[in-house]
C-alpha cells in the first residue's frame, strides 16, 4: 500500500515535470510529423492491455504511415512482413511503414513522450512492464506456452513508459525473455528499483540501443 501511494505520487509529479521539460521537443516533433507525411500527429493504433487486462488508448507520436497497424495485418503485400513480425516477437528491424521522422523519434524514444498523459491519467506508470497489444499477448503465449503464468504476473501491474527490459536490452530480446524480465520487475518492484531504472533510461534513449 505504501509503495503504491509513493509510486502514484512519483507518477503524477514526474509526468507533470517531464511534460513541461519535454514540451519544446514535443512541439517540434509534432510539426515535423505533419510536414513529413500525411496523417495525424498521434498514432492510430489499437488499444493496449493495461493493469488487470483492462484495455486503454495509449498516446504516442505517429512514426508510421496512417493505418500501419491494420495494413500489416490485412494488406496482402505485407503478408511476408507480418510473418516476420510475428516470428521476431512482434518487432521488425527493417519496417517499410516507418516514416523518415519516425525512424529518428523511434530510435530515441521521442515517440513515447505523449504517454506522460497516460501516466497522469493513471493508466500507466513511469516505470513498469511493456504495454502489449491484445493480439500480441495471445499469439506469443501460443508460441511460448510456458509464459502464461508470467503474463498473469505482468498484467497485475500498470504498464510503464520505461522498464527493466528496456534499459537492459530493449528490442533485442525476444518475448519469452522480455516477459520474464517484466515479471521479475513486478515481483521485485520497489521505489529504489524504479529509481534505478529511471536513472538508466536517459542513456538508453540517447544511445537508441536496441530500438527499432
UniProtKB/TrEMBL annotation:
Q: What is this protein called?
A: Bacterial sugar transferase domain-containing protein
**Entry superkingdom:** Bacteria
Give start and end of each Bacterial sugar transferase domain: 7-206
| GO MF term (any one) | phosphotransferase activity, for other substituted phosphate groups
InterPro entries assigned to the protein according to its UniProt record, in alphabetical order:
Bact_transf
Source organism per UniProt: Candidatus Gottesmanbacteria bacterium RIFCSPLOWO2_01_FULL_49_10
Q: Which family does it belong to?
A: Belongs to the bacterial sugar transferase family.
Amino acid at each position: 500500500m505504501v509503495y503504491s501511494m509513493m509510486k502514484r505520487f512519483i507518477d503524477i509529479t514526474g509526468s507533470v515535470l517531464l511534460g513541461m521539460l519535454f514540451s519544446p521537443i514535443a512541439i517540434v516533433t509534432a510539426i515535423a510529423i505533419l510536414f513529413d507525411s500525411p496523417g495525424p500527429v498521434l498514432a492510430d493504433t489499437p488499444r493496449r492491455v493495461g493493469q488487470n487486462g483492462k484495455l486503454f488508448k495509449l498516446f504516442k507520436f505517429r512514426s508510421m504511415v496512417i493505418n500501419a497497424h491494420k495494413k500489416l495485418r490485412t494488406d496482402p503485400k505485407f503478408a511476408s512482413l507480418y510473418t516476420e513480425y510475428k516470428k521476431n516477437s512482434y518487432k521488425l528491424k527493417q519496417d517499410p511503414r516507418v516514416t523518415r521522422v519516425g525512424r529518428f523519434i523511434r530510435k530515441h524514444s521521442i515517440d513515447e513522450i505523449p504517454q506522460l498523459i497516460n501516466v497522469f491519467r493513471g493508466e500507466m506508470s513511469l516505470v513498469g512492464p511493456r504495454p502489449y497489444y491484445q493480439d500480441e499477448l495471445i499469439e506469443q503465449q501460443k508460441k511460448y506456452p510456458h509464459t502464461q503464468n508470467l503474463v498473469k504476473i505482468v498484467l497485475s501491474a500498470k504498464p510503464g513508459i520505461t522498464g527493466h527490459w528496456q534499459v537492459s536490452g530493449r528490442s533485442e530480446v525476444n518475448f519469452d525473455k522480455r516477459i520474464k524480465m517484466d515479471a521479475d520487475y513486478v515481483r521485485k518492484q520497489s521505489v529504489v528499483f524504479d529509481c534505478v531504472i529511471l536513472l538508466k533510461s536517459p542513456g538508453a534513449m540517447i544511445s537508441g540501443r536496441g530500438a527499432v
